[in-house]
Write a structure and sequence with these properties.
The longest helix has 21 residues. The chain has nine helices and seven strands. It is globular. Strand 3 and strand 4 form a beta hairpin. The chain is of the alpha/beta class and 190 residues long.
Length: 190
Amino acid sequence: MRRINVIGTSGVGKSTFAVALAARLGYRCVELDELHWGPNWTEAEPGDLRCKVDEATAGETWVVDGNYSAVRDIVWPRADTIVWLDLHRSVVTWRIVIRSVSRIARRTMLWGDNRESLPMLLGRDSIIWWSVSTYARHRRDYPALIAAHPHLQLIRLRSPRGAERWLRSLPQRPARAATTPGARASAQKP
């Protein structure tokens, strides 16, 4: 495993897991949200995002956190491993609610100097609603998407304990490269 993409629905714990995995292996961690979000929750232009992802995944070793379909055609052909955090819906929902409420209460700084807010939590574009509404689609679509890339090794982790056990089973290597600035926000997630 030299180029790894950690995927799963929003709130499953991808960022926290990817930062820990990258640290364990001594790889650079690339957080797609960091590359995507600018100030005032502005999204990167598609061409700019693709250029950033192309540059960030040009190296020999990395862990990419995220599953943006707009850049999957860049990340997956370069990756050799997919780690799919496929936790039960109740675990994901609990995590996303706790994470969002905690970020609001602590005024946690996120990508592009953004913060979550109560109106965002309760609005139509709520990350909680996004997580709940995309959960079944991800579980349905990922197997076929992954199968279309036979070079990828799939590691499907279905419980928090299983994910922790798998992570601990990997050899600890010294750091060779830094994480992206987004790892700062990821490390603060509950």
